[in-house]
Amino acid sequence: MRIVFIGLLLVLLSACGGKPAKDVLEEVDSVQTEGPSISKEVIAGILQAIPSPLEISMLLKESGKKYNAGYLNSADNRSKYNSNYKKALNLGIYGTDLGYTNIYEQNQDGVKYMEAIKDMADGLNIGQFFDIETVGRLATNSKNLDSLLLITTQNFNSINNYLQTQNRANLSVLLLTGGWLEALHITCEVSNSNPGNKELQETIGEQKVILENIMLLLSFYKESDQNMASLLKDMEELKKAFDKVIITYTYKESTFEIVDGVMVIKDNSSSTIQISPEDINNIKTIADNIRIKIIS
Amino acid sequence: MKKLIFIVLSVFVFSTLEVIGQCNSEAFSTQCIPKLATGFNFLKSYKIEKVAKEFVEYSYVFTKGTQYMINICAGDAATDGIVVSLYDSNRNKVASSKINGQFIQAIAYPCNTTGIYYIQYTFDGSTGYCGGSALGFKR
Fold this sequence. Notes:
With 296 residues, chain A is mainly alpha-helical.
């Protein structure tokens, strides 16, 4: 019945010369509120666990890698994103790009990403959580970097919390997926230009853990959201490439000492990550293909 | 008239008591953010409030080579008997903020293994069963 309804809607809207059928289909699916059968608490718990892309940007900066705007999704592309599905994914992508520009103190580029983020957020009716004036003011002075990172992180946390309380956690999943994919893309690009860098290769391999969580989140919506089902299929291809990465973990009890009132843990456990240059190439190619679909 | 005054006063007193008894874990978690040690970048804030379970639990994917800090805020009472424990993906205990009867307000964890970690808050002699916490990272 739902398919018949969507079919009729597509015919009507196409006949009226409105949006392209593909965009209409994306919009129909992403605005629907019929939730997954899994509880809100479980979804919120997994969403909370997805790490901030800022961690990767910090790694790249601190390992001495130069800023490269060419790795990022152009802020000018924002006019292309008409469906909620695309807006949410690209809000995540632009969020990662903003974090990257902030950490490298590239204020001019940062301002463009702030505007793109505001556009995406307004389009999703969550613009009230992005304080562009404060962020813009902080971005003008590199001494404000800590405050800038704090405020942007708080803004994105508020957006995610709000979406979940409004039964729009599907958009939160897309936002985090976009953000993660962009961080993976940037890391793969940097690794590609530094083929001998083992730390970067390991960072790519470690993304296997996060991909598993993202796929789990997407799987909750595969019955109710065609776009998310399709994205999950793409992620399954990426998972096949990550399946070749082997992570070995050896647990050893940790020790600690108290330093200035803080308990500093010494982690005695260890892990190794086996990832070949071929695995990295496969991951990069598949991740790039998924990203191109999203940013086009 | 006396009856009316009594009812109005009773409603006022009870509603005031209710407000006092309410847990503002959101405010505690916000207070915790600036208390992260210098150099740590804020990631998440967590509300700690005893509801149905004996503990409150969150999870986060920690990354090898990154140092994390988790702190606890519970107003004037420092930790108010709130203990944070960290477990790895196999549920092995990595750290606990209560040691030799002493409640530590913050733990720093330099991570050696990327994976999901469970951040669990329990109550040990707590009076308010209410607090907040912040997670930060540095490379």
